[in-house]
Amino acid sequence: MSKRDFGLYLIITNPSVSYAKIARVAVDNNIRYLQLREKELSDREILLAADEIMAVTDGTDTRFVMNDRADLAFLCGADCLHLGQDDIGLLDAKKICGGKVGEFGLSTHNLAQVEDAVRLNPDYIGFGPIFKTPTKKKPDPVTGTVLLQEAIEMAGDIPVVAIGGINAENLRDVLRAGAKNLCMVRYMMDSTYLEERVAETTERMNGYFLFCEGAQK
Question: Does 165 show up as a binding residue in the annotation?
């Protein structure tokens, strides 16, 4: 893994445990990015959730990521803002955040979008869905692992986060495609055993990376 890669990325969507619990698990497992993606909540509820999460993550190496909303990211003092293809543009988002938000991520769903994202030089790029997923009401077309590998190569030194339908069964396929960073939304959020799943997944990823490094020597 390069210095810019970070491994597991956590997204909070309809979790089975509390926001504070998720934040504590993220901090204890050195998760760099913890994103709040609750599209059914009101603005007030989102800000309250952000406060609950940041009460745990503030002062740690875990960055709190606000999804979509530059205005809410500014108001709560989020560490990072993640933008989708239908959201406000990155340059406008930076104007709204006024330097208060330090990092930005961009979602992409095909290679043309990856190419556009690279020109904007975000802190990381999300790519997917790698596999079929019901997480979103209107999912984008499945990319598969072949396009994922191309996206990673195209992004150069910008970290790419593989996302969409990834679980314990297909994790190795994603790693074999070259993914150093990935997100497993349902696999993590649908379980009350979040801490165990985060630790196990991190261990499997690190083990794979160490194996690959050893094989190259």
Answer: yes
Q: Annotated binding residue at 175?
A: no
Query: 3-state class of 104 per DSSP?
Result: strand
Would the annotation count 103 as a binding residue?
A: no
Residue 217 annotated as binding site: no
60 marked as binding residue: no
CB atoms within 10 A of CB 17: 17
Residue 2 lies in a domain: no
Counted domains in the chain: 1
Residue 1 lies in a domain: no
Q: Range of 130's domain?
A: 7-216
Q: Is the predicted pLDDT of residue 108 greater than 70, yes or no?
A: yes
Residue 138, annotated as binding a ligand: no
Residue 171 lies in a domain: yes
- 157 phi/psi in degrees, rounded to 5: -90, 5
Any known ligand binding at 133?
A: yes
List, for residues 124-176, the tens digit of each pLDDT value: 999 999 999 876 667 789 999 999 999 999 999 999 999 999 999 999 999 99
Which CATH number do you get for residue 184? 3.20.20.70
Is 38 annotated in a binding site? The answer is yes
Which H helix or E strand runs over 35? strand 33-36
The whole-model pTM stands at 0.96
